[in-house]
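Still learning folds. Look over my entry:

…
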Amino acid sequence: MIPVEYACAFCGEENEVVPDESGGRRQTFTEDCTVCCRPNLITLTFDDDGDVEMEVSQEYEA
C-alpha cells in the first residue's frame, strides 16, 4: 500500500502512515507524531475503488 501523509493535529508537521488494506474498510488507530511525539487519532475509510479518506484529531481532545 502507498503511504498516506497527514498533518499532526498538535504541531502541524507532516507525517505518514502506511494503511493496512487487510484491516477492514474503516480503521481507527493512534500514531505518534515523529516531531512532537504526541498521539494523533487517525481514522481511515476505504471506498469501493480503494481510495482512502483520512480524519486526524488529537487523541486527548476535551
